[in-house]
Amino acid sequence: MAKLRPGFSALRGTGQTLQLRPGDGAGWLITRTPDGVRWTRATGAADVTLTGSVLDLLLVLTRRLSAERITITGDRNLADHWLAHSAA
Question: 5, 41, 71, 79: least buried by Cβ within 10 Å?
Fold first, then answer.
């Protein structure tokens, strides 16, 4: 992915975690590693959690809605960094 979009390389990390939690069903747990991003379909503790409907999460992650549309708890700087470097 980093070759397609150089900003994706900024998503590498040292184990920081983001939880995407839809209103219903299991969420996605994203872990930033030195080799890149890993994700699993799971709900668990994370450094930052983004909560909202699946549609709102998708629209925020693709920068079609403001992050104010969802609930962000935990490390807001990590959420902002993720959004700044992951949006297509």
Answer: 41
**Averaged pLDDT of the chain:** 88
Question: How much is the pTM?
Answer: 0.86
Cβ 22 vs Cβ 57: under 8 Å: yes
pLDDT at 17 over 80: yes
- The answer to the question of residue 29 being in a domain is yes
- Give per-residue pLDDT as tens, 56-86: 999 999 889 999 999 999 999 999 999 988 8
Contacts of 64 (CB under 8 A, 6+ apart): none
3-state secondary structure string across the chain:
CCCCCHHHHHHCCCCCEEEEEECCCCCEEEEEECCEEEEEECCCCCCEEEEECHHHHHHHHCCCCCHHHCEEEECHHHHHHHHHHHCC
Beta bridge partners of 33: 36
The answer to whether position 31 is within a domain reads yes
